[in-house]
Amino acid sequence: MERSPGEGPSPSPMDQPSAPSDPTDQPPAAHAKPDPGSGGQPAGPGAAGEALAVLTSFGRRLLVLIPVYLAGAVGLSVGFVLFGLALYLGWRRVRDEKERSLRAARQLLDDEEQLTAKTLYMSHRELPAWVSFPDVEKAEWLNKIVAQVWPFLGRYMEKLLAETVAPAVRGSNPHLQTFTFTRVELGEKPLRIIGVKVHPGQRKEQILLDLNISYVGDVQIDVEVKKYFCKAGVKGMQLHGVLRVILEPLIGDLPFVGAVSMFFIRRPTLDINWTGMTNLLDIPGLSSLSDTMIMDSIAAFLVLPNRLLVPLVPDLQDVAQLRSPLPRGIIRIHLLAARGLSSKDKYVKGLIEGKSDPYALVRLGTQTFCSRVIDEELNPQWGETYEVMVHEVPGQEIEVEVFDKDPDKDDFLGRMKLDVGKVLQASVLDDWFPLQGGQGQVHLRLEWLSLLSDAEKLEQVLQWNRGVSSRPEPPSAAILVVYLDRAQDLPMVTSELYPPQLKKGNKEPNPMVQLSIQDVTQESKAVYSTNCPVWEEAFRFFLQDPQSQELDVQVKDDSRALTLGALTLPLARLLTAPELILDQWFQLSSSGPNSRLYMKLVMRILYLDSSEICFPTVPGCPGAWDVDSENPQRGSSVDAPPRPCHTTPDSQFGTEHVLRIHVLEAQDLIAKDRFLGGLVKGKSDPYVKLKLAGRSFRSHVVREDLNPRWNEVFEVIVTSVPGQELEVEVFDKDLDKDDFLGRCKVRLTTVLNSGFLDEWLTLEDVPSGRLHLRLERLTPRPTAAELEEVLQVNSLIQTQKSAELAAALLSIYMERAEDLPLRKGTKHPSPYATLTVGDSSHKTKTISQTSAPVWDESASFLIRKPHTESLELQVRGEGTGVLGSLSLPLSELLVADQLCLDRWFTLSSGQGQVLLRAQLGILVSQHSGVEAHSHSYSHSSSSLSEEPELSGGPPHITSSAPELRQRLTHVDSPLEAPAGPLGQVKLTLWYYSEERKLVSIVHGCRSLRQNGRDPPDPYVSLLLLPDKNRGTKRRTSQKKRTLSPEFNERFEWELPLDEAQRRKLDVSVKSNSSFMSRERELLGKVQLDLAETDLSQGVARWYDLMDDKDKGSS
């Protein structure tokens, strides 16, 4: 906007003079410094300036007539002149609108609070987010930081464009070899953050922020291609939207955040003011087209499901998964019908009113679907189905827009929006939704499909889908996510490999990848000039039948004319993989001998639990959704969604591992003990301290030993969050202060990736010493078939100094409670929950003043005796005591499908229910040193009566009696050989090669002989022959008055395997003769020749007892 010289400056803060003493009514020329020789009076220069301004204005108007003259000179009609004039006026109008919008936005940002206070009568849409929403905070401190950093960001952008972008543009095309940035200025108006919203209750490993950003900048970027005298650029820009920032994963080391992810949940609004040749983009028609193309480019980079990932730590694991995580779920959208639409078609200049030709656009993020057009209908029936991936809950919205199809511009009939969180909460929504901005309603059925890693559900899903009528595409049964990581040793590009019409020399390829499933093909980016490319991209496919479909992978040069390698992978292979995941190298065919491709493929079954279909009303009852109903919103699932039938934990629930840490021994530790004032050098009394995942462990002290052997096992629950380390420190135990003997660290990702680590680690910060650790990752398995074998293996590898080993991992997801009792009958409590298993407990957060709290918290517990332990849950009110309790025996999980219970549980108080998911995973060790067996034992002699072991193996040595009875219910099975006249003893013999120990477990006896009136008080004595000294003698505890005692005690002898095989084990069952006598009554004995015993299996067997004179050897 021009201003005449006589006008005063505008009162806008941007245009105020810098000197406050200047008169506001003085023309701009008066601000020039007066000539000293002229007495301070402006003379000639002002008159010359006015004359120049008049000549310039006249010249501009004269230039407007040049196109008219040229049109007449070449003989063009007046129509061309009028068309050009209309084009210019349209361009001018678009430019003026953009400049006016920029000025208004800048004025708002310059004094936001003052304008907001003056214009509180504005519509809700115009108010900033911190005024409209109470949970959005105004972060002015953050804007001050951005304003301070803005000039330095401008310098960085100038350097980036000049040194990185410009050379890339020049090298991309020969015609752009003179391309340069002539001006790069971000301006003085920084980006502003209008409001910040922090989402509580999300995953514990992440921090989730929503930033309401507004950029109304005076940015100026000019480019030039000197060869063609072409100049273009941008002068001013507006960008408004909600940017979601996710800080994950949180790690236990600086900087505490592994990476930052940024993306727009919905498309931001964009307005660009062009200069130079790009002024043509402001022509009506081209303006909206150019903005749409730029927004498409931004959406492909920063709008869900695309994310900008900035790693903050080196060697970050699963970068592709952080950039493109698994979807939270799938929503199947049934676009059924609409009714009561407005009529938009008019005939005879509006005298005759027609109907409409409606169609619908269904959108979620960047996923858009268009229905077919129904001609001449105000109550259309579409009956179409679409499937969309949901990545963020809350935040994403399903949007349906209805239009009337016209030859020129389609008329808008209305829209509806629905947050996907409501679909997740209700599982199924079937309702008529009113259209905003128009009239009428649209009928949608929305189904939330959970992602399962259970291949057994696939057949049920396929059978269900066969009965579903879906168009234009059949319903999907699964999704496939392909994480394309990298390739190695791709073939070099030679002229012989190209078709004859393409002449290429020998060079490194520019590889890209095409992935296809049936007729759906997706392409990766091209990586230039390398035969070992790294892509780190993710691709997603819907699968109709994974049993018959294949993934076709083609690695090509960027010209698409040359194939560098190929791979065809039947998806049925994933159905047999653990957790439906393949994470490995794949050999390429039609490629080099060492050419291979690394990919991670994750399949998930799309499952709609029929029990989750909770309709808001019963069909046929009052309030059901009848087309002719007067109140179509009665019983709407949107306003009052039904109670969920199952929990909805995030994708990280149940993904924990258990790390088993075996501290074996150390060597060459330094001596710290001194005697007689340091004249006599002693040794050390070492012990080990371990720190991991916020927990600490400590071994026992070994006295006076520089080469100690601890042989202790510790277990800790860990996640796959990168950056974690196992910290190990060795100390010398003293009376005052313990002396430091060294430390070492082990990166947790090393163990989680390999599954097992057995190493001697050099101790740091000391002259000498090393420590022997054995680390194993135990991944929970959702099957009870291996539980008894796990219990048996744990009993064999159990060390005397360690706590009882865990056999399972219990994961609890505590979602919510309902109908809790009121405090004093009228007031809502402030409830929290405590979860307890054994001596471990977890307390949830407290939810203020509600009888229906939502916690959304998870906890994990190590389980040692799954048959007898139970989960104890208490719901308590802050200051009010117990509101209800629940006891869940874990034995119920052992018989549940997938060892999982996911439902509502009634509290013992009789009032109130809790919705939780209890999931058990069996911890199977792959590196225990115990050979696997399948219940097939060899009978060695008639004196050996073997138990068929229907329950899978011996119980744990420290198990309680009820659990042992439960697991030994088949002891007296009629299928077994009958016991001898003196009874039987049950033993397990095994040689633990890793510890160089002979292990014997005495489980119990049965059918012992009763010589007197009262039953005996039996115990078992073991002697390793030929030695008869105390060093080889072991004995169990004594059981009172029983003929079938249960001991379950473990004994060890340290000796080499070859020596053990030369020994005999003498087993005697004895009883005290009387209280006052030291005599022992022999109830029976058996002598086992270890050379004839298989010590590798560790199988429990029954042995017949004999008289002392008989001593039979089995």
Automatic annotation (TrEMBL):
Any one Gene Ontology molecular-function term assigned to this protein's record: identical protein binding
GO biological process, one term: endoplasmic reticulum-plasma membrane tethering
Subunit structure: Interacts with ESYT2 and ESYT3. Interacts with ADGRD1; inhibiting the G-protein-coupled receptor activity of ADGRD1. Interaction with ADGRD1 is abolished when cytosolic calcium increases, relieving ADGRD1 G-protein-coupled receptor activity. Interacts (phosphorylated form) with SLC2A4.
Sequence ranges assigned to domain SMP-LTD in this UniProt record: 135-313
Disordered, as annotated region: 1-48, 627-651, 934-960
Compositional bias annotation for Gly residues: 37-47
Function comment: Binds calcium (via the C2 domains) and translocates to sites of contact between the endoplasmic reticulum and the cell membrane in response to increased cytosolic calcium levels. Helps tether the endoplasmic reticulum to the cell membrane and promotes the formation of appositions between the endoplasmic reticulum and the cell membrane. Acts as an inhibitor of ADGRD1 G-protein-coupled receptor activity in absence of cytosolic calcium. Binds glycerophospholipids in a barrel-like domain and may play a role in cellular lipid transport.
Protein name (database record): Extended synaptotagmin-1
Gene of this entry: ESYT1
Compartments reported by the entry: Cell membrane; Endoplasmic reticulum membrane
Species per Swiss-Prot/TrEMBL record: Pan paniscus
Similarity section: Belongs to the extended synaptotagmin family.
Family matches, as CDD domains: C2A_C2C_Synaptotagmin_like, C2B_Synaptotagmin-like, C2C_KIAA1228, SMP_ESyt1
SMART domains membership: C2
Organism domain of life: Eukaryota
Record-annotated membrane-spanning stretches: 62-91, 245-265
Any one Pfam family match given in the protein's UniProt record, by short name: C2
Bias type Low complexity, positions: 935-956
PANTHER family recorded: EXTENDED SYNAPTOTAGMIN-1, EXTENDED SYNAPTOTAGMIN-LIKE PROTEIN 2, ISOFORM C
Domain named C2: residues: 312-433, 454-590, 637-761, 787-909, 981-1103
